What we know:
Blueprint (H helix, E strand, L loop, with lengths): L1 E4 L7 H20 L14 E10 L4 H24 L2 H6 L1 H8 L2 H4 E12 L2 E10 L1 H10 L12 E4 L8 H15 L4 E2 L5 H6 L2 H5 L3 H11 L3 E12 L6 E11 L6 E10 L3 H28 L7 E8 L4 H12 L8 E5 L3 E8 L3 H11 L2 E5 L2 E5 L47
Parallel strand pairs: 1-3, 5-6, 5-7, 10-14
Antiparallel strand pairs: 2-4, 3-4, 7-8, 8-9, 10-12, 11-12, 13-14
Helix pairs in contact: 7-11, 12-13
Amino acid sequence: MRISRDLAQPATGMGRLWRWALALLVVVVVRIVPVWAADGAGGSIYEVRGVEVSLPMNKGLEATHEAGVSQAQREGLRRLFMRMLTQAERESRKEFLATLSKDAKRLTERTVVRSEKQSGEKLSLHLDLHYSRKEITSAFGKEKISFTEAAYPVALLIVPEEKGEGATTLLGKAMPLAAREQGFNLLQPLGDLEDLTQLSSERAEKGDAAVLEQAAKRYGAGETWVARAKATPVTGGKGTRVKVSATLVVARPNVAPITLQASEEKGVSSAAEAANAVYPAVATKLVQQLLEQWVADHVLLPGNKRTLRLRVIHDVQVVRLTEFLAELRAVPGMAEPRMVQASARETLFDCDFAGRDEQLDAALAKRVLHREKSAEGLTLWLVPPPKGEPAPTAPAPAPGAAPAPGAAPATPGQEASPDSAPPGKSWL
């Protein structure tokens, strides 16, 4: 494990002038291109950033520092488990995960102390941590724990404008912190003229393709979030109580938007207390729901690992084959496809797969015009055959093997096209 500190050192004279100039340049660049500052953009799921701890300095600076690093490593590991495991898995493996957390120091490959501040008798640390993929996946594999390594995509939060500190505005302020604590890389628009004209919250809630394209082009976001909230006073009982009901709409390309709802009710003595207590709580509920859904959709199944043989017919359209392989590699649980045999017309691949069948089925549906299952494997057509030529036929079944359910016999001279090809079958 390596610990490094990125702490500012004093500078004088010309050095101080250059430092101020460099700091100003960094601020300008980050302001113009916010995606460059994205926390964890393109990073590993095993990197947990922004862990903050604060401890009393009872045993001196050095001892408190070491205790703070140790506490942060355990906290970062807890967040990592939330990114990788479903809630049901965490509950059923609670004792094992608790034992694993005691060994957090060994599981941590790199610790970066971003800041270290003394305030009175307390020491506050802000750290980034990177955990060992090899150690953690090995531990999960021995226990046959289902997990995901798919990092959540960069998201852009769009909050409808309100006059004053309305409920939606307060929720919008609470969402980034809650998202960061759960491991999301959540960006916010600059709010300039381009954003005001292109990033409409109403259109984003409907999954408008132009809004999603703008979010991807300008911010590198793979999806948009639209958060809304409503606060109502609760009558009856003792003291003043407020209930906040919130909605989060998540829009992604080519799929229907997802709508999540959460509410929180607490007794408060002032509007400021509500802003500091109720809204962060409801924001945390929303992002936890979204994270749980993501993990459940991308979980790997170590006990279900198998090898698939894919016969991909592409003719001379190498670009389509390249695009298909890129989408295939992105499927959670898919290892690098191994080429077995290749020609100008088709390529044979073997793929080790330990993911969910629905994820692979959805990936194939994007590029494949027609597919058939046989005893030899799967035959996938990326392009239709030229007119007048016979359609490629699936590999002959092994002797005594039954034909694939619903598979139509190949007819010599039959022409296949995107319109005439039979619909894709459920083959998994």
